[in-house]
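Lecture notes, part 5. Sequence design as translation. It can be helpful to think of inverse folding as translation between two languages: the language of shapes and the language of residues. The source text, in structure tokens, appears below.
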């Protein structure tokens, strides 16, 4: 975990010599958000941000879109926020790179998704998606279960 944080920090510092683009805030209120970009040729760091008001489960994927001599090579894809640093895993390599984030549980707060890589002179693109499911707060869930238990006891008592 510490090594991945150092790698992410180093990549971001190196990225400062490359083009850095802000992908802008993602709106996850509908349960998912798509994003895409055709980064500048050469090294790039694209950063997308989003905020969660409550704890949630989160998953995501990114796929490169290539044609002919187009090629994006990601160095890494990182999600950073109050719950720590999470690395996307490379699922498929060239020519069509696919990266995925297994379902994780994250705390409420602000997050950054950093995509770090290089783009070929022919200018390839990528597309991705983040999906979120809100985690119920423990108090309402406990109240719901207690209420169901009381209803069950009352129904059982009436049956006798």
């Amino acid at each position: 975990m510490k090594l991945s944080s150092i790698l992410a920090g180093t990549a971001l510092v190196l990225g400062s010599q490359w083009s850095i683009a802000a992908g802008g805030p993602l709106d996850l209120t509908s349960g998912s958000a798509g994003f895409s970009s055709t980064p500048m040729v050469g090294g790039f760091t694209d950063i997308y941000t989003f905020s969660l008001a409550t704890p949630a489960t989160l998953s995501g994927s990114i796929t490169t879109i290539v044609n002919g001599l187009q090629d994006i090579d990601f160095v890494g894809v990182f999600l950073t926020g109050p719950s720590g640093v999470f690395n996307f895993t490379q699922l498929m390599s060239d020519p069509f790179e696919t990266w995925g984030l297994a379902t994780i549980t994250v705390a409420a707060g602000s997050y950054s998704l950093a995509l770090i890589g290089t783009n070929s002179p022919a200018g390839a693109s990528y597309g991705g998606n983040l999906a979120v499911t809100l985690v119920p707060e423990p108090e309402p869930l406990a109240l719901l279960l207690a209420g169901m238990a009381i209803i069950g006891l009352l129904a059982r008592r009436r049956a006798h």
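The translated text above is only one of many valid answers, since several sequences can fold into similar shapes. The chain has one domain: 2-159.
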